[in-house]
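Sanity check

After download, print the first record. It should look like this:
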Amino acid sequence: MKAFNDENFLLDTAAARQLYHDYAEGLPIIDYHCHLIPEYVASDHRFPNLSKIWLEGDHYKWRAMRTNGVDERFCTGANTSDWEKFEKWAETVPYTMRNPLYHWTHLELKTAFGVEKLLNPATAREIYDHCTAMLQTPERTARGLMRHYNVEAVCTTDDPVDSLEHHLKVKNDGFEVKMLPTWRPDKAMAVEVPADFKAYLDRLAEVSGVQISRFADLIQALQVRHDFFAVAGCRLSDHGIEEFYAEEYTPAEIEAIFEKVYTRGEKLTDNEIKKFKTAMMVEFAVMDHDAGWTQQFHYGAIRNNNSRMMAQLGPDTGFDSIGDFTVAKKMSKFLDMLAGRDKLGKTIIYNLNPRDNEVVATMLGNFQDGRYGAGKIQFGSGWWFLDQKDGMEKQMTALSNLGLLSRFVGMLTDSRSFLSYPRHEYFRRTLCNLLGTDIEKGLLPASEIDFIGREIVAKVCYGNAKEYFKF
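Expected structure tokens:
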């Protein structure tokens, strides 16, 4: 019987263990998509206790706690103490077995704090006090944890109207870890609620210095901010969409739609919304291409399903799920709209429904372009509900069968937590186990293990991302 969470965790074969320990373990981390709070890095934030760094804002844990019968006040309640919240989480952990939270929890405790005991009600107080004490040391501040995990670069998620003051401070401080912004312009195409859209564009006009009265003004204002992001080190955009938009439109139609929603404040039809979103996505893609950026598309989530809890807590609180959209034709048409103009730059596509793995994996090959180097169009790593062992294995298997796993840019945290870096370790162990199992079965030659380690494992875990993004 194998031990839990030891040095060979998730590594089932001798070849897997060799690949991980000789080629993957200890590589720097390039976390090219996350939701860290930039202010925390700028101020080198010190977390007062384990709950603040581990439970606050973590909707993964909140979903598990609610499912385990924990009252909402122990998840998001303002008048519940941090210890009480942690105590309820500790009660929940033993019941998360076979959920990735069980693995992540114990990997994070071990790698960040040296805790190898299992978290449960009997060990909760000891672990809480031990970790809280460590969080008061310089080695476990926001920056200290990034150093501890050998992080080379992180890309946060930022709105075009953001000042990026914290990114600039981190750069000016000379902090050795690059913290770069990512352009996330979702609100600039969110025309479903006219009043909200107008309020956002008024703010955009203010920060860009461009008076917005026509669609062309909106694009100019966004270009001003895009240029500002580039100066601050931005090299990626990110778009959170339910599905791809690829409607036929004319400039006159888009100008009329803009005038209707922005100037007159009228609600748009479904067809008008899709046309406008298509036009915006094309404009964003052209900006990214011309700036040499990589565009990312996270698609397929149904958000804010529980309207009562949305009204009570707001978005991103654990009430989202996998959507069921027909995407292949629209995805293909959108990418072709750009490729036809030779404006399709580096692109990463993340699906949330695992049913779409093969759809995305085959779509990549339609638009690869050697002028951009290897792997121009990327199948993004298992995202959100899929960033666990089974989801990552299925994503890498689809990519292997239908593309080139060897050119994959690898894992990211997609997290708000400074304790989430072990997700990279989890991914690296899973990758090495996949390849090592193939070697043990004779599906890959054992004589090529050094090539597999150097040219596939080390590059998927680190080298490909470094070459692809060129931070």
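If your output differs, re-run the checksum step. Summary of this record's structure: The chain is about 50% helix and 5% strand.
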